[in-house]
């Protein structure tokens, strides 16, 4: 046999060359697959923009703390002033006003959260309304730490404060019952992320300063994403109840284990936080710091939305394309049926089309239905195509069965949260074992 005939025969029969060609086609298919992943990411970002717009109109995440009693006081500072006539310094006393903030002795928070799904076009967002009840008491207002005499404390100018991150979400008048009087709280302008609500002057504060001062407040708020409270009570107890089945308890403190229940109908949780558990005391002088970093509460999360599922499925795109082309390659090697590189490319493009079908149908149907329609369309197309190029019912059935099993395996992984990595690793191990078993008798040397 001539040298040219041997080379031509090697090119036609070389398994290595066929594998290189299929590998090159697989790499080429990564380009449209990358475009599809970008499309999925873009649609997911669009969804988040719409959700943010809905939440912004309804009410964003809520962080709340109060009530706090604010009491102004004055101190006197000596100041030297130059006398222009005598050229001597005169010592004068300057009156300076400051503010003290006192936190409650006991604070009990009761919260009932009712969730609702809002739609905007093809997008939806989960929001909530909460009924809040705050009660507790103040016990003593001690200025001894800064040695301010009682006559310099402006008891008649004392007010109530409440701080929240979401003024827009408040749906009722904010009214506090303090001892026997009631006070309406109004917004006070500031440039901070946390807004302040403040009452008018507390009546008869001079009489209250040495007694136990109880309070109670009820209000309704709209919000989204999360609801958190700051444990400003010396003893803070909180009970939260909701119809949302997927809470994520977050922040500085977790609920008590024996009080926490989560089910398909919602969740219940309770917290008890002591002064010693946090990093601040019961009073502040001069200014009230931002305390949101010490908040605790619940995030109302969506476990895995449809865009997340589609994005997760696209991450397995390379594996699905590679394994499908490998099945065709093994059929070609075992049966000696000739499959042209162009046909491999068409099969690969059909596999990429699965993800564009999935993302487009998902925007109008639930993920399960979209996955079934897309999967059946692509599996049916490739099975019919394989029947025409392989001309064998047995091999076409093998293609149909392997693709059905592969897409079913990926669907199961996507639905799992805690066991996705474990199931995926075991599944890939089984697939590798099957491939190794199926290829054990293949003669990898080219035939003369």
TrEMBL record:
Signal peptide: none annotated. The chain crosses the membrane at residues 316-335, 342-362, 368-388, 395-414, 420-439. The keyword Signal does not apply. Pfam families: CreD. One of its GO terms (cellular component) is plasma membrane. Keywords: Membrane, Transmembrane, Transmembrane helix. InterPro entries: Uncharacterised_IM_CreD. This is Cell envelope integrity protein CreD. The lineage of its organism: Bacteria, Pseudomonadati, Bacteroidota, Flavobacteriia, Flavobacteriales.
